[in-house]
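user: Please review this fold.
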Amino acid sequence: GATGEGVPPGRVDREPSPQELLDHGRLWRETQWSVRHCPVPVIAAVEGAAVGGGFGLVGVCDIIYASERARFGLTEINVGLLGGASKALRMLGPFKARKIFFTGELLPASELYRLGAVEEVTPPGQAEARAMELARTLAQKSPIAMRLGIAQSTVVLHVKSALAKTHSRSRTEMLGKILAHDADAHTIKGS
């Protein structure tokens, strides 16, 4: 209520802003952005279904471990909605992504492993343990090198995505600009 009675701790009891009312996906996009731009690797451990939003969240993680029982898919089409295409393209490639996008089909973990999206398929109940094992290994690595590696791979993914969205002539122009900028950044002035 207006006095704050009955409001759970940490929750602000207020009216949503007009932007929040009009942009229902803002919080979801911010969540995905936070995972995608996390300064340390984000490892997913999937034991059951990663469907719809769960598929999208797993799709922005760096490394995925999945149980033999795990299933992945975008079932929104079954209720007249669409979503998750960019994650499906990244994880599955264009043809398999289109198929699950158009059919709402669920794929087993073994298929995502075959396509290279899943690092390892584990026995039931073991995905989290394997993810934690990798997390302990990664925690021993140089944090600076880890952050640089994440930043570099993020840039490469964004460039590949941007190139894929442009016309072939524009791709050549864009690539030329990127290469010219890269060459300029590595040139020592005055030598």
